[in-house]
Amino acid sequence: MSVVFSDETRERAREIIARYPADRSRSALLPLLHLVQAEEGYVSPSGVAFCAEVLGLNKAQVGAVATFYTMYKRKPTGDFLVSVCTNTMCNVLGGQEVYDTLAEHLGVGHDETTADGTITLEHAECLAACDYGPVMTVNYDFFDGVDASTAVGVVDELRAGGRPMPTRGARLCTLKEMAVQLAGFADERDGAVADGGPGEPTLRGLRLAQQHGVSVPGFDPNTPIRSKAEADKAAAEAKAKAEAEAAKPAPVEASTAPVKGGDGASAPTGAAGVAGPAKPAEATGPAKPAEASGSTTRDVKAPDDKSPQVRTAETRQPDADTAVPDAPGTKVPTDRTGTAPEAGDARSAEAAGVAANAPAGDGKPAGDEAGAQERNLTEAKAGTDADGAGPADANETGAQK
Q1: Of the candidates 100, 61, 142, the residue with the CA atom closest to the CA atom of residue 362
Q2: What is the DSSP string of 56-108?
Q3: Cα-only R_g, the chain
Q4: Phi-psi region of 226 (alpha: psi -120 to 50; beta: other; left: phi over 0)
């Protein structure tokens, strides 16, 4: 069933895309997937189609990303995603017992949602908080040092409509509200980010520094943090000052040592036609000869409109216009007659290859054409017959085909 996304979602999508350069808009895909999840509670086929539409991609490209990351849910999810770490450290400390107790108490298994749509339970491989184990998260906010009874108390409070306070972080919100934040938008709830606090293991280093009097020289903890406008202004002033310094001509220092004339008399320094003793220039570093690197490859500046992929390809496989035969590690491409191609042949070949390999549609991956499949099957069958192997010797997939 097709879903029409709200005007607010479409406006936010445009705002997300505007964060990236015009020719890199597909980088907005990750926050856009969080955005559609914020409206539907999961990344539905309609959400995939929406992302493909606004970014000019096909649905297969969007789906490949959406299925790679576990934070994008592919089926309806509860208001609260409860994740219990069952990896090594938390498991040793009782994480598996916590998960098993919650599964029995809620009557659901991994990646399943309670009948009232409130809780979705999952076991996580690692929640990156080993010093707080066993840990579980609710919509990615941490509950540290839990055991079976405290975990049951948290989910019961959630099902009763409460919002238990996480051990660290702001107050709890629903999964849809969290998805809005993951898409790059602020939590607009009044005082939402004022709650919570850091865990004691996180503050251990600070406590030791205070105990032993360790501090950064000249550090003032009361130094105000500049706003973005102030920081931009300071950066612009520093840049203008640096450019002004670079534009100044280098001062010419006159020698102060007296210079004797031909009759032995001292000549005034700076007199016309009289040169003072040569003063060695201040060395700014060892001189680097042009061939110090051992390479004779010419520096070819790529135009600004070339993409990084094209620049990389030209660096790895230069054409006759940019390659030098004796450059270390460089081989001028040649055809079968041993003749180096004319300048630009590599680019022509690349263009021909691109034209012959059109992007895949939504229905099949690239290169998966029927003709190639039939040819591969025919060749495989011919090779089997030539070797004298019968169907019994073929693998299971080959026999079925």
Answers
A1: 61
A2: T--HHHHHHHHTT-TTS-SS---SEEEEEE-SHHHHHTTHHHHHHHHHHHHT-
A3: 34
A4: beta
CB 5, CB 38: distance < 8 Å = no
Q: Which residue has the tokens 């190639």?
A: 372
The total of other beta-carbon atoms located within 10 Å of residue 333's CB is 14
Handedness of CA 312, 317, 322, 328 (dihedral sign): positive
Among candidates 20, 34, 50, which has minimal Cα distance to 185? 34
Query: Residues 122, 82: contact at Cβ < 8 Å?
Result: yes
pTM of the model: 0.52
Residue 61: other Cβ atoms inside 10 A:
18
Report the distance separating Cα 280 and Cα 231, nearest Å: 42
Average confidence (pLDDT) per 10 residues, the chain, 401 residues: 78 91 87 93 92 90 92 92 93 94 93 92 90 92 93 93 86 90 85 68 84 80 77 89 85 57 50 49 51 51 59 58 49 56 64 71 48 64 56 44 42
Cα–Cα distance list, 55 to 20, 40, 58, 305, 306 (Å):
12, 19, 9, 20, 21
Work out the angle between the directed axes of helices 95-106 and 148-159 (0-180°, nearest 10): 40
Look up residue 337 and give its two tokens: 């007659």
Query: 300 with 285: CB under 8 angstroms?
Result: no
DSSP 107-136: T--TTEE-TTS-EEEEEES--S-GGG-S-E
Q: DSSP assignment of 268-323, as one string?
A: PTT-TT-PPPP-PPPP-S----TTTTS--PPP-PPPTTS-HHHHHHHHHS--TTT-
Q: How far apart are CA 70 and CA 122, in angstroms?
A: 11
Q: Which two tokens stand for residue 81?
A: 């995603």
Structure confidence at residue 368 (pLDDT): 47
Which residue type is seen at 202?
T
CB-neighbour burial class of residue 71 (10 A; exposed 0-12, middle 13-18, buried 19+): middle
Tell me how far apart the alpha carbons of residues 331 and 319 are, in angstroms, rounded to a whole number: 9
Residue type, 104: E
Torsion angle (degrees, nearest 10) of CA 204, 205, 207, 209: 170
Give how far the C-alpha of residue 146 lies from the chain's centroid of Cα atoms, to the nearest Å.
32
CB of 76 closer than 8 Å to CB of 42: yes
Separation CA 46–CA 1 (nearest Å): 8
pLDDT of residue 298: 57
